[in-house]
Amino acid sequence: MLIDLDVPTIVSSFKHDLSTFTFIPKSGLRDIKKQLDILAGLRGHPKRTIKTDAALWLWDYFVSRALNSITPNTRGYHKLSAYFKHYSHYEQILFAIDENHRDHVIHSIWVMMIGFYLSRQCHPLSLLRYPAIQFDRANYIKKIKEAEKLMASYEDALLVLVFLTHDLGYPIQKTTIANEVMSKMTSNFGLLPQTKFSYQFTVLHQTAIDELLNTLSTVILWLPNGQYRLGINPGIRLDYSKTLEQFDHGIMSAYLIQRYLDFICDTMSWYRHIPDYTEKDIKMAVLRALIISWLSAIADHTNNNKYFYDLDDITVLLIISDELDEFSRYSHHRTRDTWVTVNCKTSINCTRHSLDFSYKHKNRTRDETVSFFRGKVRRLIDCFDLDKESISKISIKCVNSSSKPDNNVGYYFEKRFNTGDGFVKRLRGKPNYDVRGFLNEFVNLN
What we know:
six-stranded mixed β-sheet, alpha+beta, two-stranded antiparallel ribbon, 10 strands, globular
């Protein structure tokens, strides 16, 4: 099904969905819609900073109420909320050093709206499964059905938390770029040391790191008697430890959330290394599955060790929504000293067996278009383990229309099951099968 994304359609659909969110009171609908209109530019053309303020209000409103609908224990949330406000101030620095940097406060709100829109419009993305709660389906019993029903009642709140917190760890990753810019200046003075700003955990952090890795790799094993056991998958744990070593912003987001929210520590506390120890509290199993699903989804969206086989995965919905948001990207015009919204129309053709992304820009240069295209291919080429029985094809098309004929270009990438890395080409050009060479900027598309 081909789905075209534009601002009025997405905002209108999300406003309609608001009445179905059980954690949103009717008294709050008017204020929410007002802030959405400001964010989307439906009330004149507000400055970027005004849109950011609207996004900050929406973020705090939705995260706090989604969290409250899951647990009354919200100790530590005020620290997470304060961090997000500081996060917004920190991004002002990043705009000055990265011309293509997007406002991630605004971005998180768009990802949420796009995600809910796709989950309503694209059937394969609406049937989400939760591996933690469905582990060992051979022992499918009545209590598991009860757990899945309770899990479904929390789904909207869970999606809100996933969409709005997936990029909280971004400052750690982006600060390396700031360091490179600053080091170019300080090197001119000669006497200043040429050391890079870096991070490392110490032994004091080891317990928190171990518990995060344990949480992300926890599985729930249901027994025929209706009880369950909790266990840790060592292979999954190792995968997450690799992405943690790279300080990927996905798993750093999960680390920050676990560090601040007290209810995660309380809920994920269980007796280990005790033979034959079982539990039977269904709600506690669901709460644990919610935490595992939340933290693993945001950790997995940047985890290069994770591959996806089907579309019925909450992380896949996050990744697709993340890649389709081009509504919140700004650039700083070098000569006029103004903020410019990047004009890009996005669409996706989504079936159970294929994903086709389309991006249509206006008035960009040829170099900007090919750079954008290369970034999208680099991001998505290894996300999916293609198989003829599940996702068997992925494609990306980027087109730019410009008043300057030389900038009217288009590029296409396609990868199918059992075809290696696929191919890249200019539209109406010949396929080039050296995709890795193109990604490494060794190959040009003629």
